[in-house]
From TrEMBL:
It comes from Streptomyces variabilis. Its cofactor is Fe(2+). InterPro entries: JmjC_dom (IPR003347), NO66-like (IPR039994). Keywords: Iron, Metal-binding. This is JmjC domain-containing protein. Gene3D superfamilies: Cupin. Residues 100-242 form the JmjC domain.
Length: 394
């Protein structure tokens, strides 16, 4: 059975975005087959077998501490004198059975289906997503009572895990913050068990503790959501205002009190002027979308450009590309921090790519009324810009 990735995203509809996102936790009960095809134990075994995964990407945690790498791996020196660490399955099993939690970060970069899920979430939530996998076997808490500096969406893939949720003690805490969070209350706000097929959303800053205390092993992953805060907006605005001479000028350290006051007033006037523009927030968010990190997807063997093969498929490797029309009707695509301007006729095929999915070159050509060779040339530009990839249609 293959999971319908968009169906996972469908649970995060308009009601979720308007009433839950960033505000409160939400438990989404589901049937055991809900996430079939996303990631299973055989997939995890294969990732551990076929990849050289070093800490902190792969780690074991117990009691809020990270186990030393040598406890479950052995260094191997190659004939070129490089060193990597080979897992010792028996030692790995021993520590996991003894209460450790296995953590594998950024598994969306290693597993194609999870990569597609992450990209769909990025397109829907308009923010970066990283998927981490967690496996545990005992009631031992790998991380203790803690909070995350980003929102998370939890998908329980197998087994069961008990979540004790305490709520926040500081509004919108940051990784680099000005104050230390107050400790959580002694008693949780809610205690619930995620079973296979269940999903949980938890906003950042919410204290929680997690344990496989139901007598069965647990495999789940979290989709961590990149935060975009007022601090990010102010940092961007400070860069934008470098165009102003006052912002570039030295501070009047040795000036009179009047000169210092005039300087501060001038800076304040510049900032106020920017904030009076009703489009400031939209401009910033559009820039964040336009500079969204593209996923790493080479297009081998097509190193000399995309050939005019109708059966080749193409997809964007960034989920938040923006397509607009300029004053002359040209199609302007911004993605991965780059911008391309194409003729108006290219707009239909670019719209298909921006909407997601994989599309054959001949289908894109029909949508735009272009020849396959013309589409291949356009796609080559996007591949060279590292925002698109091509391959054989599956």
């Amino acid at each position: 059975m293959t999971t319908d990735v968009p169906a996972v995203v469908a649970h995060l509809g308009e009601d979720f975005l308007a009433q839950v996102y960033g505000r409160a936790y939400r438990h989404f009960p589901g049937d055991p087959d809900r996430f079939a095809g996303l990631l299973n134990w055989d997939d995890l075994n294969a990732l551990l077998t076929h990849h050289r995964l070093e800490p902190p990407r792969l780690r074991l945690a117990a009691g809020g501490e990270t186990l030393p790498q040598h406890a479950y791996s052995v260094p191997v020196t190659t004939r070129r004198s490089t060193v990597w660490h080979r897992l010792k399955p028996a030692e790995l099993h021993h520590h996991l059975a003894d209460g450790a939690t296995l953590v594998l970060d950024a598994v969306d970069e290693l597993h194609p289906t999870l990569g597609r899920l992450a990209q769909e979430l990025e397109r829907h939530l308009r923010t970066g997503i990283q998927v981490n996998a967690y496996a545990s076997w005992t009631p031992e808490e790998g991380f203790g009572v803690h909070w995350d500096d980003h929102d998370v969406l939890v998908l329980q893939l197998d087994g069961a895990k008990r979540w004790r949720i305490y709520g926040p003690t500081r509004q919108a805490p940051l990784h680099r913050d000005t104050d230390v969070l107050e400790p959580p209350p002694n008693e949780p706000l809610v205690e619930l068990v995620l079973h296979t097929g269940d999903m949980l959303y938890l906003p950042r800053g919410w204290w929680h503790a997690v344990a496989a205390s139901e007598g069965v092993h647990s495999l789940h992953f979290t989709c961590g959501m990149q935060t975009t805060t007022g601090a990010d907006l102010l940092q961007w605005l400070s860069e934008e205002l470098r165009r102003e001479a006052t912002v570039r000028s030295d501070l009047p350290r040795f000036g009179t009190e009047e000169e210092k006051a005039d300087f501060v007033r001038s800076l304040g006037d510049l900032v106020v002027k920017e904030f009076e523009h009703g489009t400031l927030l939209d401009r910033f968010l559009a820039l964040r979308d336009a500079t969204d990190r593209a996923r790493l997807v080479p297009s081998l063997p097509y190193v000399e450009g995309v050939p005019p093969d109708p059966a080749l498929s193409v997809h964007l490797v960034t989920a938040r590309a923006q397509l607009r029309s300029d004053g002359e009707g040209n199609a302007v695509l911004t993605a991965g921090g780059e911008e391309w301007t194409f003729s108006p006729q290219a707009a239909p095929l670019l719209s298909l790519l921006v909407d997601g999915g994989r599309h054959r070159l001949d289908a894109l050509a029909r949508a735009a009324g272009l020849r396959v060779g013309q589409v291949a040339h356009l796609v080559s530009e996007l591949v060279d810009g590292e925002v698109a990839a091509v391959g054989r249609a599956g």
